[in-house]
Predict the 3D structure of the following.
Amino acid sequence: MSLRIVVTVKYVPDATGDRHFADDLTVDRDDVDGLLSELDEYAVEQALQIAEDADDAEVTVLTVGPEDAKDALRKALSMGADKAIHVEDDDLHGTDALGTSLVLAKAIEKAGYDLVISGMASTDGTMGVVPALLAERLGVPQVTLLSEVSVEDGTVKGRRDGDAASEQLEAQLPAVVSVTDQSGEARYPSFKGIMAAKKKPVESWDLSDLEIEAEEVGLEGAYTTVDAAAERPARTAGTIVKDEGEGGKQLAEFLASQKFI
Amino acid sequence: MAEVLVYVDHVDGAVRKPTLELLTLARRIGEPVAVALGAGAESTASALAEHGAVKVLTHEASEYADYLVVPKVDALQAAYEQVSPAAVLVPSSAEGKEIAARLALRIGSGIITDAIDLDAGSEGPVATQSVFAASFTTKSRVTKGTPVITVKPNSAAVEAAPAAGTVEALSVSFSDKATGTKVTGRTPRESTGRPELTEAAIVVSGGRGVNGAENFAIIESLADSLGAAVGASRAAVDAGWYPHTNQVGQTGKSVSPQLYIASGISGAIQHRAGMQTSKTIVAINKDAEAPIFDLVDYGVVGDLFEVVPQLTGEIKSRKG
Ligand SMILES: Cc1cc2nc3c(=O)[nH]c(=O)nc-3n(C[C@H](O)[C@H](O)[C@H](O)COP(=O)(O)OP(=O)(O)OC[C@H]3O[C@@H](n4cnc5c(N)ncnc54)[C@H](O)[C@@H]3O)c2cc1C
Ligand SMILES: Nc1ncnc2c1ncn2[C@@H]1O[C@H](COP(=O)(O)O)[C@@H](O)[C@H]1O
């Protein structure tokens, strides 16, 4: 029987660009170039490796996001995923993590799955909670923040490197996994992969396809609100000295003046 | 006065500092009721009482160590139902955020993660967050249900505020999902004897410029002369020179010490994300154009192999 893997990938504003807020205090996704979140590339990579090791597997990449989020799906398809699902709806604007997890969970159920693989966190919101929320909503085990993962005979195993200890985890499928950037370099799409991706199916679903009411998501459905956002004042220019043999001593003098020594 | 639930992060009964900081913040909103789970839970009570906990709800069971996250969510939910608090505060560790998120979903409440400050507010707690690699500061509120908020280390001072700290056994019945993810092995991290990276008042970090695992000894001796924690950039970690647990940045730890010293680190946006809110920033880099110099209070353009040992020597002689 085929192993159905769904990888959740997010389209995010480029971190090296000028990220900012729109007038309604949501993340501005129009003015800044976007891309497949780098941390989700690791999820795609692990999905492809698990699929390659399985006799028969299918990797579906899933995103919830605006029109441009298709770029993220294309990238994942060109890395080697088999097909893609894009959940897009005007009413999704301003959806928070709880709402996003609702939409993803409904889409994952509709698509059918044995294994969900997410990234450790999105590079824009950086909450790192969607995988745990998906496990809660789907009612399946959460095997998250893995730096090593494998699937065999319906069991997923992995290593979670925490602050206090490194843990070996194990759960039965179906399950939700998230992987860290320690799980292994993500592959670059090959020319062949990029060409092949153009012919791979991308399905588009909206809220009605998922039987979600508009009030449950978007700014209206959000459980949190941002009241204010201010650019952090630029740090006042510091003192910069060139080491002419006394740099370490000068630095010590500065630290002493600030009472660190 | 309204009660505020505080989830306790502890190791065998030793309360970790971020939890004590949470008690300071919780007292701005109401009366802190602490929840301590797992082996040693009862031993947390005296430290929690000293810092303002009016009550400490405890529960010990092997499930907390043997299965991932869900048993703790079940227990926190039981505490929530018993107390009906005005807010739930959880330390912002990877696990803390997962526990908080699942609780929020279960109780139909909104969640805010990685707060760096918290005020009572007229319409419920207002959380300050630092976003987009710390280039923006936001104020947010939970608008539905009981606010569930995770708070980063070093967000408030630890304050003595003696309170009753009455220990009460929490009654918990685990859900059928509690045993879904087994912990089949656990290798505790070896202690280096240095302060915890996220809790340290001073962090001394090395990057690609350190150029080799063996050279990290230079960074370590500077750290030790200041009683500091050691950090590393991802480039240094990926090269295998220093453990990932010490990585500072977007996919490592986020630190906010009084003093951050970066040596041989360029200051890429993902590194800045983890250290930009440090109070005083110092850098040593041989490239005067390195972006890290845009952040510094004091910078030395020079070779770290010259500057750092001289600095360490000078600190040691000044300290006598
Ligand atoms: C999704 C994602 C997540 C990331 N997460 C993180 C993260 O959590 N943390 C992180 O740090 N990075 C992270 N990065 C990587 C980040 O983009 C940079 O690549 C990294 O921070 C560079 O590390 P570095 O400054 O040590 O190395 P470099 O950028 O190579 O800089 C080395 C510096 O050392 C200086 N130098 C060299 N020799 C000497 C000498 N002898 N004396 C003095 N100075 C010297 C050089 O002038 C240079 O400025 C992430 C990247 C991505 C895409
Ligand atoms: N809009 C989205 N579409 C698809 N996947 C998402 C979306 N938002 C979050 N995720 C997934 O959830 C992970 C954690 O995201 P977060 O909790 O927002 O930090 C990401 O790495 C993605 O795998």
Notes: The domain at 3-221 of chain A is CATH 3.40.50.620 (Rossmann fold).
